[in-house]
Amino acid sequence: MTEMNETPEGASSGGDGMEPLLKVRGIDKHFGPVQALYGVNLDLPAGQVTGLCGDNGAGKSVLTRTIAGAHQPDHGQIYFEGRPVHIRSARDAATLGIETVYQDLALADNLDIVQNMFLGRERLRRGLLDEDSMELQAGETLRTLRVTTVRSIRQPVASLSGGQRQAVAVAKAVMWNSKVVLLDEPTAALGVVQTRMVLDLIAQLRDHGLAVMVISHNLNDVFEVADRIAVLYLGRMVAEGPAADFDRQSVVEYMTTGSASGRPFAPAESAGDEG
Amino acid sequence: MPDIPVTADPGETPGGTADAAMAVDLTAAPAAAAADVPPEILAQSLGQYLRAWWRRVRGGDSGVLPVVLAIVVVAISFQVANPAFLSAQNLVNLFEQSSIYMLLAMAEIFALLLGEIDLSVGLVMGLGSVVVAELVQPTGLNWPWWAAIIVTLLACAAWGAFQGSLVARLRMPSFIVTLGGLLILQGVAIIVLKGALVSIGNSRFTNELVLYDIFWGQFEPVVGWILLAVVVGATGTGLWLRDARKRRHGLEAPPRSLTAMKIVLMAVAGSAVVAICNVNRAHFGTIEGVPYIIPIVLAVLAAWTVLLQRIRFGRYVYAIGGNPEAARRAGVSLPNVRTWGFVLAALTAGIAGVLFASWQVSLTTNIIKSANSYVLLAVAAAVIGGTSLFGGRGKTIHGVLGGLVIGAIYNGLYLLGVSSWWIDVVVAGVLLAAVAIDVLSRRGAPRQA
Amino acid sequence: MTVDPGGTPDGPADTAMAVDLTAAPVAAAADVPPELLAQSLGQYLRAWWRRVRSGDSGVLPVVLGMVVVAIIFEIITPEHAFLRPSNLVYIFGLSTVYMVLAMAETVVLLLGEIDLSVGAVALFGGVVAFKLVQQPGPGWPWWAAMLAALAICGLVGAFTGTLTARLRIPSFVVTLGMFLLFSGILVVVLGGANGAVSASPLVPNQRVFYDLVQGLIPPVVAWVALAVVVGAVGTALWRRAAARRRQGLVAPPASLTAIRIVLVALVGVAVVLICTINRGTPLVAVQGVPWVIPIVLVVLAVLTVLLQRTRFGRYVYAVGGNPEAARRAGVSLAAIRTWAFALCSATAGLGGILLGSFFFGQYSTNTADPGQLVLYCVAAAVIGGVSLFGGRGKPIHGVLGGLLIGAIAYGVSLLSLGQLATPLQYIVPGVVLIVAVLVDVLSRRGSGSGTRA
Predict the structure, then answer these.
(1) For A130, which residue in chain C has the nearest alpha carbon?
(2) Does C302 reach chain A within 8 Å, measured CB to CB?
(3) Cα separation of A183 and A191, whole Å?
(4) Are residue B317 and residue B394 in the same domain, yes or no?
(5) Is the CB of B26 inside 8 Å of chain A's CB atoms?
(6) How much is the average pLDDT of C175-199?
(7) Res A18: pLDDT
(8) What domain count does chain B have?
(9) Looking at the domain assignment, is residue B323 inside a domain?
(10) Which of A92, B95, B330, C152 is paired with C92 by a 20 to 30 Å CA distance?
C-alpha cells in the first residue's frame, strides 16, 4: 500500500529512512539432510511490530535463532542498519542490539528481579556488585515500560505471575540499548489479563522505536499488535507485508497450504486484493 | 549369551528424548542414526544381522560388547602377569567372589533404571548377613535355616519399602535417603552383633551347616552336567518355540540361524563352566563340581530378567527411567513402581547378604564397616556392564557381566600381591572411566545444561 | 511504582486493592521476603510469621533445633553437665570443623551439585599440612605448609569440578569415586594402616597448628575484639540501610536493622562470656576464646562476601537456580562449576587442618573417618537451611547447622550408653540427615518450587 511506503520508518536507522532496521535476504539453513529454511526474506522495520506466523515445523524458531546468533545460515545475508553483518553468537547479536526472549524466559527463580535483569552483565563497584545502581536502573526500566504491577523489585522471580515474569524477561532484553527485540510465543501460557499486559508492553517497545518481532500461534494477539505479518510455510516465506493486507482466513491458509485462494501472496498495490 | 528379544527392547534402545526446545521443531537434526535400530528387528538372515550389528557398534551403541571386551582384556592381562589366573581353581574362586558383586550390581540396577541410586545396598547386605547368622545361632534363637533366610529377606524388603517410600512418595533425593539409611543400618548391624562377632562355622549344627554350604558347597559333577542339560534344553526350547510362534504369526522375528547360534553359544558357555568347575580344585582331597552359588545367581538373573523385560512392572520401570512425566500421564503409578524398585533392590541385597554370611563365616563389626565399599563396586559393576546412570537403560545381565569384571580385577590384583588400598584406587579409576564412557556415549541425546 | 504493601500481601482477596489483576503467582505470595514490603517492625513480624506458617521458615528450624537439643541433652546428660562452660567450649571447638566443612559443601550445594569427597579431601589436606611441618622432615614454616595444603586441595577440587562440569558426569558419582580415592591416598600418606602424624605444641612452628583450636585468646583481648567487631559490623549495617533508604531503594525498617545489630551483639557477648568463664581449676585457670572462633568468622565473612556480593557468587546462585538462564546470559557454566568445586575443596582443606588441631594436633587412621565427616557436613548444611536442589542457602546456614551437629554429636558421646555408644554414632547422624532433608523437601513443597516429577 502506498501509504506504508511513505511512512518514515523511525529515527534509529541511519542512512535511508526507508531501510528496515533489520533485513534478512535469501537465508538457507539445513541440519544434516533436512532443510529448514529456503531462501527466506524478512524485513523488520524500526518502530513496528512484525508478527511471524507459521505452523509447527515451518521454521519460525530456526529463523529466530539464526537472527539471534544461535545458528549460522548456510546461505544468505543479514543486514543491520543497511550494513551486511555476520552474527556468529548471541554475544554478537547483543553487541548489535538484537535481543531475544525465548519461550522459557531464561529466568532464575531463586534470584530477584534486579539480579535476573542484570544476569551476565552485572555492574561492579570496587570489585563488588553495585547493587544500588543496578536496582535503580532496573526500577527505571520497569517504569519506562509502564510495568507497575510488581510489588517489589527485590522479589524473587519465583513469586511472580506468568505475565509479570514475561514482563521481566522483556525488560531484561530491552535494558541494553537494544534496537531489535525477538519474542518467541510471549503470550503462550498466559491468561487473558496477563496477555493484555504483555501486548501493552510490546506496544510500548514499538513506541520507543524498537523493531519488534513476535512469533505467535495466536492470531488474535497477532492481529491486535502487529503492524506487519510474515508467514512461513515449510521453510519458505510465503507471505510478508503490512498487517492490513491480511485477514485471519488468509493467514491460516498461508500457514497451512502456502497460498491463499490458490494464489501466492502479492502486495496489495499489485493486481488482486486479498481482502 | 545376551538375549535381545525381538520386540523393541527398552534395555537396549539408545536413551533420551530430544530436548524440549527442539520438540516442536521438525527441523531438528535427526538424532538417531539408522544404525541405532536394533539389528535383529530388520535382519532377515544371519549375514544381515551381523552386518547391521557391526554398523550399530560402529555408530556407538555397542550394548554389552564393551564389557565382554573388558573381560577378555582383563583375563589376558592378568593371565600374562600371573599364569595361575586362568587355572580351574582360581577361576572357580573368581566366580565365587564375583557372585557377591553380581548380586549387588543386580540390586543396584533396579535403582539405576529408575534414574535413582541406592547407596545402602552394601549395608543391607551386611545387615542381612548378620541377621541371618544370628537367627540360626543354636545358643540364641536357633531358627531353622529356611526360616532365618525368609525372615531376613523379608526384613530387607521391608527396609527397601521404607527407603523407597521416602524417595517415591516424599520425593526426597535417593542418594541422601540411602546415604542416611546406610548409616542407620550400620549402627543397627553393630547393635545386632552386640559388638562382638557371630559365626556360622560350627558344622555340628545343621542350620549353620546349610548356611555354610550355600557358598562353599557344590553339586556332584554328574549333577552339574544334568543341570546344564536341563537348563540349556529348557531355555533353548523356549527360545525356539517363541521365535517360531512369532514367525508363524508374521511378527518380527530373528533369523533361525541366529536363534540356533544363541542356543549353541549358551550350551558351549555352560559346558565350559561346568567343565571348569568339575576339575578337582582342592589341595588335599577332592573338591569338584558346580558350586551352588552359580545356579543361585542364575536363578536370580532369570527371575529379574523376566520381571524387567516381560511383565508390565518392568516396562513401567523403564518408562519412568526414560521419561517420568510421560509415564505419569500414561497412568503409571510412579510412587508404587519406585517403591517396589527399592524393595527389589533391597531384597536382592538381602540375598547377597545370605551369601555374604556364608562366605565370611564369621562376621565382625569391622567386616560390617567394610561392607560400605561394596556399594561403589555395585555401581561400578552395573555401569561397566552397560547400565546407564541416568535411568531407562540397562538389563540384569549387565550386573552379572560387570560383577565378573570387578571380581576379576580384585582377584587378579590380589594374586599379584597388590595391597587393598591400591585396589580401591584402581577400582575408583575404573568406575570413573566407565561412567565417563556412559556420559560420553549419551552425548548425542538429552542436553544437560 | 510499587503497590503499597499495607496489610495483606497475598491471595486473590487482594484484587480489590492491587492494580495487579493477574492470576495467582507461581509460588505463594507469602514467598516474598517480608522485609521487602514491611514498613514497620510490626508489619515485618506479621509477614514473617505468615511466611513461616506457609512453609518457608529460613533459619527458624535450626535455631529451634538448637534450643531443643540444648534442653534435651541438659536433662539427660549425667549431672546435667551439657551446658557447662567447659563442655560448651568443647562443642564450639568441635563444631568449627563441621562449620567450615559445611560452608565448603554449601558452595557446591548452591550449584545443585554435591561433593561427597569433602571429608576425604579435608583430611588429606590436614595430613599434608601436618606432614609438611614435621621435623625431621620437610620442616616448612606453618604458613607455607598451610598454603600448600590449601592449594593442593584446591587443585583436587578443580579436577573434580572439571570432570563434573566438562564431562557432565554426575557429581555424586565423581565425588564418590574421589572419596574412595582419597580415603586410600590418605592411608598411604599417613604411612599405612597404623600411621599417624602430629603437630607438637612444643615445637614453635608446629604450635601454630596446635593452637588453632586449642589455643586461647586472653579474655581482655577477646572483649575488646568483640566490641570492635560488633561496632564495625553494626555501623556498616546501619549505614548501608540508611543509604538505601535515602536513595529510595528497598530497605528494611530501621527498627529491624537495630534489632539485628543487637542480636549479633548478644550472640557475641554470650560466646565470649562462656569462653571467659574459668573452666579449669582455681589454681590453673583456663579462660579465653579459642582462636578458631575468629578464624571461622573470617571464613564466614569471606565466603559470604564472595557469594552475595561478587559476580562469581551471583553466577553460582544463577547456575543453581536455572543453568539454562545462566548459560544464555553468557555465564560459563563449566568455569563456575570448576571454581566452585575448587573453592569447596580448598575450604575443606582448612577444615581438615582444624580437625587435626582439635584432636590435639594428632591424626591417625582411627580418628580420621572421612565417611562420617561428609555425612555430618552435608547434614549440617541442609539442616542449617541450604537446599539440596540448588540455588538456595548461605554460608551462615553452614555455621548454624555445624553448631547443631556438633552439639548433637558431642551430646550423644556424653551419655553413658555403654554398648549403644558406637552404633548410635552412626544411627544418629543418619537419622538427622534424613530428617534435615525431609524438612528441606517439605518446605520446598509449601513454596511450590523445585518439585520433581
Answers:
(1) C309
(2) no
(3) 17
(4) yes
(5) yes
(6) 81
(7) 66
(8) 2
(9) yes
(10) C152
Instruction: Tell me the angle at which helices C395-414 and C85-110 cross, rounded to the nearest 10 degrees.
Output: 140
Q: Which residue has the higher pLDDT, C275 or B346?
A: B346
Q: Out of A129, A136, A156, whose CB is closest to C310?
A: A129
In this complex, is the C-beta atom of C38 within 8 Å of any C-beta atom belonging to chain A? no
Q: Provide the pLDDT for residue C111.
A: 95
Tell me whether residue B31 is in a domain.
Answer: no
Confirm or reject contact between C195 and chain B (CB < 8 A): no
What spatial distance separates the first Cα and last Cα of chain A, rounded to whole Å? 13
Q: Which of these three, B240, B256, B288, is where a domain ends? A: B288
- Could you tell me the CA-to-CA distances from C313 to B233, C107, C155 in Å, in that order? 65, 9, 20
In this predicted complex, what is the ipTM?
0.77
Same domain, B112 and B248: no
- CATH assignment of the domain containing A233: 3.40.50.300
Cell 560488633 appears where? Answer: C230
Q: For residue B388, what is the domain's CATH number?
A: 1.10.3470
- Sign (positive/negative) of CA torsion C42, C46, C52, C55? negative
The three cell numbers of residue B260 are: 540356533
- Rounded average pLDDT over B13-28: 33
Q: Which residue in chain B has the smallest CA separation from A104? A: B21
Spatial contact of C443 and C56, defined as CB atoms under 8 Å apart = yes
Least confident segment among A86-95, B20-29, B156-165, B275-284: B20-29
pLDDT band at B190 (very low <50, low <70, confident <90, very high): confident
For cell 555501623, the residue is C235
Which residue among C18, C28, C322 places its CB closest to the CB of A109? Answer: C322
If asked whether residues B421 and B342 sit together in one domain, one would say yes
The pLDDT, as a whole number, for residue B443 is 57
Q: Determine contact: A109 vs chain C, CB below 8 A.
A: yes
Structural domain range at position B178 = 63-213+291-441
**B207 with B350, same domain?**
yes
The answer as to whether A172 is a domain residue is no
* Per-residue pLDDT at B191: 87
**Contact (Cβ atoms closer than 8 angstroms) between residue A150 and residue A113:** yes
Average pLDDT estimate for B141-161: 93
Asked, for residue A163, whether it belongs to a domain, the answer is no
Q: How far is B31 from chain A (nearest CA, A)?
A: 10
Residues of C in contact with B193 (CB under 8 A): none
Name the more confident of C421 and C84.
C84
**pLDDT reported for residue B16:** 32
What domain range includes position A225? Answer: 2-108+178-257
* Contact (CB, 8 A) for A17 and A23: no
CATH number, span C12-29+60-215+291-443: 1.10.3470
**In this predicted model, what pLDDT tens digit does every residue of B418-439 receive, in sequence order?**
777 777 777 777 777 777 777 7
Nearest to B24 among A34, A36, A56 (CB): A56
User: A: neighbours with 3+ CB pairs under 8 Å?
Assistant: B, C
> A155 and C36: CB-CB below 8 Å?
yes
Q: With contacts defined as CB-CB under 8 Å, which chain B residues touch C419? A: 191, 194-195
Is B18 contained in some domain? no
Contacts of C96 (CB under 8 A, 6+ apart): C213, C290, C292, C293, C295, C296, C354, C358, C402, C406
Task: Write the residue in A35, A57, A102 that is nearest to B25 by C-beta.
Answer: A57
CB contact under 8 A, C167 and B427: no
Residues in chain C with CB shorter than 8 Å from the CB of B382 are none
